[in-house]
Q: What sequence folds into this?
């Protein structure tokens, strides 16, 4: 394995071979590139950008490794042994956790039965577009609910803390490649797919599961769980049909509020979980490109729209503000799933070609902020902000918007900058939407960033409310075997259960849960 530094302008296989031959002190003809392990753009020096690359190269057997370069060994995934089960596992939800739980079960020769409250990705896309054009929200088929989960209508980020459970993250990325993602996502830093490509991958995964005997039921909401003597034995779908199983994987999204409420009523152990809420901030993509790339590289071909990550911490009160789900060359979208409650998200397509770039600015909340001991108090906290946002936007799905300089007290409230939101914007004051502590921390963060990244505090920047679904406000309590702490046969997994955040970590959590269940069974 070799670690190389390649100037941006010289990026390419030929330069990789030149750099490798110099490092190995051998002729270029003696080596070949076997694999790229990692590739990250280093923006530290605005006068010269570099790619930091880790390569695996093949070289003739007579090479004397005097510098003791690490020798790479390919990890081979062990074949699953087919498992005999007395019944078929049930999976509730067909987002990242549900999809990867199904794929893992099929690897064991087990054919799961999957229930998804929303529609197929193709039909779901139609409902999303109709909502944008006609303002008719389908509360069961939208950006939150449906095949592929909420992540299918975001930026398609596959970020993860790669130093934790790296083998599982790699398995997730390899699986995406198997179903249509470009191979580069296995090695580039902060890989991204985009909504358009994700939708195709989701469809391919569906077909694979069906071809191998899995069953998927759409518009099929779990309305009850059959529990007796602390043991789950099945589910009720749409208040009508009963399905029995001794293994039920709960793979909800973070917005499945009515399902969580039902589970709480049935006595499943659930606890409060800290969340973050805040605004979407949007700039012209050119402003962010200049901020991140500098004058030399801001228009450099092939770099694409720039990403950024900012954070601020108020250590005195243990609150922070951080950017979340940053969408370079993307758009702000209406991600609502309840009538009269407005929630936003950001998304982008694979080419990231929009003239705008946006990100959530999320303020950390404490469970004390919920003003209730109820396990569901975080949901009510979210709902209150979403109602305020809906009303502040005029009550017809326009987004309440405020230019950044107005928010900072340096401009008038009237007048809104050009932006990407397709359902119209309405002048509003963010102070009318959020609790006081959210406003205070946002102002403190902007004051800090004004010194550190002055281009970010731009006359062209605009704020939208509200971003409330950054993560699940509840955790369905489970033990080390991924089983509910008080209901046997019930396995809460993924983001909606309160254990992960994002596509990759939810998928990895599902793989580990299925492994655990099959190992113990």
A:
């Amino acid at each position: 394995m070799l670690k190389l530094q390649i100037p941006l302008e010289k990026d390419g296989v030929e330069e990789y071979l030149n750099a490798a031959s110099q490092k190995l002190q051998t002729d270029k003809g003696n080596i070949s590139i076997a694999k790229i392990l990692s590739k990250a753009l280093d923006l530290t020096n605005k006068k010269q950008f570099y790619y930091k690359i880790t390569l695996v190269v093949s070289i003739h057997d007579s090479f004397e490794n005097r510098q003791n370069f690490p020798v790479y060994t390919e990890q081979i995934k062990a074949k699953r042994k087919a498992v005999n089960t007395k019944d078929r596992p049930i999976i509730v939800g067909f987002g990242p956790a549900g999809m990867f739980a199904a794929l893992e079960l099929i690897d064991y020769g087990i054919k799961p039965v999957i229930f998804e409250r929303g529609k197929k990705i193709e039909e779901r896309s139609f409902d999303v577009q109709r909502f944008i054009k006609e303002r008719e929200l389908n509360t069961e088929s939208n950006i939150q609910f449906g095949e592929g989960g909420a992540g299918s209508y975001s930026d398609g980020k596959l970020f993860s803390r790669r130093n934790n459970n790296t083998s599982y993250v790699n398995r997730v990325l390899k699986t995406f490649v198997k179903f249509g993602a470009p191979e580069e996502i296995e090695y580039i830093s902060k890989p991204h797919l985009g909504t358009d490509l994700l939708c195709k991958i989701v469809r391919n995964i569906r077909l694979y599961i069906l071809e191998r005997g899995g069953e998927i039921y759409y518009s099929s909401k779990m309305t009850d769980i059959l529990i007796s003597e602390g043991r789950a034995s099945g589910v009720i779908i749409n208040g009508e049909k009963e399905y029995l199983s001794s293994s039920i994987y709960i793979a909800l999204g973070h917005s499945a509020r009515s399902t969580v409420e039902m589970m709480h009523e049935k006595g499943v152990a659930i606890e409060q979980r800290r969340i973050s809420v805040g605004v979407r901030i949007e700039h012209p993509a050119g402003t962010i490109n200049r901020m991140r790339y500098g004058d030399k590289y801001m228009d450099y071909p092939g770099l694409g729209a720039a990403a950024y990550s900012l954070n601020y911490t108020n250590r005195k009160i243990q609150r922070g503000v951080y950017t979340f789900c940053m969408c370079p060359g993307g758009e702000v979208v209406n991600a609502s799933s309840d009538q009269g409650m407005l929630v936003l998200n950001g998304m982008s397509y694979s080419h990231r070609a929009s003239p705008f770039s946006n990100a959530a600015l999320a303020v950390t909340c404490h469970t004390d902020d919920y003003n209730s001991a109820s396990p569901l108090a975080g949901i009510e906290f979210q709902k209150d902000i979403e109602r305020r946002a809906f009303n502040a936007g005029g009550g017809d799905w326009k987004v309440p918007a405020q230019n950044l300089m107005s928010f900072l007290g340096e401009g008038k409230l009237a007048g809104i900058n050009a932006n990407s939101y397709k359902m119209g914007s309405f002048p509003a004051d963010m102070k009318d939407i959020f609790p006081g502590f959210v406003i205070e921390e946002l102002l403190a963060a902007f004051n800090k960033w004004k010194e550190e990244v002055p281009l970010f505090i731009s006359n062209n920047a605009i704020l939208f409310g509200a971003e409330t679904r950054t993560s699940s406000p509840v955790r369905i309590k489970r033990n080390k075997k991924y089983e509910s702490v008080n209901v046997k046969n019930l396995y809460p997994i993924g983001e909606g259960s309160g254990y992960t955040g994002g596509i990759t970590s939810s998928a990895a959590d599902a793989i580990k849960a299925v492994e655990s269940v099959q190992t113990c069974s």
User: Anything to note?
Assistant: The first strand starts at residue 2 and ends at 7.
